[in-house]
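[User] Once you have settled down, look closely at the record that follows, and write a paragraph about the fold.
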Amino acid sequence: MKQKKHKALAATAALLSVATLAAACSSGSTGGSAADGKAPAGATGTAQDQKPKVAPKIAIYMNTNAIARKPEGSEPKALEEVTNYVKEQTGVEATAIIPPKGSEKDKLNVLLASGEQLDLFQGDWDQYKQAIIPLNDLLNKYGPDIKKAWDADAWKLMTDKDGKIWGIPRIITTAPFPIWVRADWLKKLNLPMPKTLDELEGVLKAFKEKDPDGNGKEDTIPILLDDRFQYGLVGAFTEFGYSNWVDPKDGKLKIPELQPGYVDFLAKMADWYQKGYIYKETFAKFDVQQMLKTNRVGAVDIWYSGLTINAPLVGQTVPEMDYQFIPEIKGPKGYLQTAYPGTTTAMLVTKSSKNPDAVIKFINWQYQNVENHLTSWYGIKDKNWKWADQQKKTVEVTNPNPYAGEFMVTLGLAMETKYAPSDPLRAKHTQFLNNELTKFDKVKMPVDLGIVYDKEALKEKVPNAGDLDRLRKEEVIKFIMGARPLSDYNKFVDELYKAGLDKLIDFQTEEYKKQKK
């Protein structure tokens, strides 16, 4: 029944959109030009500007994961309340398009090609340049708080070689791959927190052999990895970690797989896999929470939130479970972890938007203060959420919450570090997010950090880039699983060059040298 009501409301909203557009045209009101990204003449940048008689309407494609807690969307009444409140505050009427699960990108491409109203979505700006507009003028006039929220490094990731800003930052450089270990198991087995790779290997061996979960079976999973685990381990074996690197022999920027020491990394991982230290299905898809529920996982090297969010939830039924990240650990070549570089993922304004100025005003309002951000994510203050302790900036959210968060477009550390949920189950996540995620004193920094490799130019100059990426991932897994012997490694490198690796290296080197000037 709720879905039927929601569809009816969406149909009504579509009719209102047509009426709004007609009214705006008849009143002579104008928006910014989406063709050049410039704001309308004579406009100013505050929410107190004189508002048009009919509020401009914007459509947001909600592909940011902000509504993960309620993926079906808000209850109609709750959504109407937030819509009206935000409209009063910003002079902008927002609607949200909830993408079909599993087909988010396909639906986005259909919307971009169809001419249906779509003003704002999340994506990599260098993949969507033909469908979006630069934001420099709009940010200068309507986005002062957006500009202040992010530092120069974040904005560099949004900027092309001509100085055009194409999006609003989302993912900045972080250190999200520490190794987490069951501290309660260490205590049970009388083992110290490991500080070296050799000590970590000894811990994994003990977890494998000494039945720390006490179930009488040799079924412990010493370490669980995800598909980006190399950021957490390669640094132990290579000078520059899991990073492109400049080969001193020819001055070219080459891929991590060619870095001295990388084969040693593969050899160690293959050894761990053969000994049963690495979960046998680690390179297939698995549900982290379900794996932790088995009470058999001793250590993990996965994206941090997979552990920080799920472990406390599982801990409700396994109260002794105590995962702690290893604060300082080194291998033969230094720190294990490599920082995960920021990306070109951003909030993007479409070229078809008739009111790009309204889009930026709407976003800027969320960046003005943390309460606006929280309202966009959780709903009406003192109804859907409230301050548990305003001085400490802890927030209590209504559960269940009828509002899903359809208008949340300010995800990212710029705002998310300004408050903390009061829920004790989120304490581990909040502590790591606020205190550890952007600490880089015990990680290796990528050599080409901050370099933006234009994906459109990459496709043109390296047509086989996708094949190369697939080959690198697949063959590395084969080496680790023992499906391919390490004696084949030079042959693997030859295969990469035959697939166009030399063109990729030349492209990366050219971009690196140009942007490093």
In short: The domain at 57-172+342-405 is CATH 3.40.190.10 (D-Maltodextrin-Binding Protein; domain 2). The first helix runs from residue 2 to 26. Residues 1-47 have pLDDT under 50 and may be disordered.
